[in-house]
Amino acid sequence: MVAKKNDSTGALVTVVDALEPLSDADRLWVLQSAASKFSVAVQQSPGSGGNGAGGGHSGTAGNPGGGAQTSIKQLDAKAFMKSKNPNSDTQRVACLAYYLNHASDVEAFKTADITKLNKDARGPDFNVTRAIDNASRATCGFLSAVGKGQKQLTAFGEEIVDALPSQEAVRELEATRKPGKRGRGKKGKKKAKAA
Hints:
This protein is mainly alpha-helical. The protein has a domain at 61-179. 53% of the residues lie in helices and 5% in strands. It contains 10 helices and 2 strands. Strands 1-2 form a two-stranded antiparallel sheet. β1 and β2 form a beta hairpin. The chain is globular. Residues 42-69, 171-195 are annotated as: Disordered.
């Protein structure tokens, strides 16, 4: 086994050697995950086409807008979902909605759109309808209704997807968010008045 080097050049050599046998999508996932772990924003260099290791990213934290839409279009749904590594059904729905919006320019979607995209991404089976309902609740706030049975990703939902795969960053975002009013209709108001 090679001795660990404490200099940046040695670290670079180790990283390049480890990434060499991987596909471009896997390289991107590894680099994004490592950058997220160390809270480092990976920026696309001007003129690079986002083709390979470090060439682009799919809207990670620290890059609002920028080249995110261009680079996400270079990823298929499976690679994008792998790079985000959602750990709940609501996060999975938010990621799929984000992909629809940024890679396919679909702003509003129906349950069937998310179900189809999840199949295309070879994602696990889950109750998409329930996950969309949960992601739309004020306490979660990842999605909002736009009418005619359609939903869209909220700004908060986008922030969550941008923060992934770092669950720590997601928890920090959720802790700072002011949840919607949790009124219980008339019963909740009556209890408040009685107290």
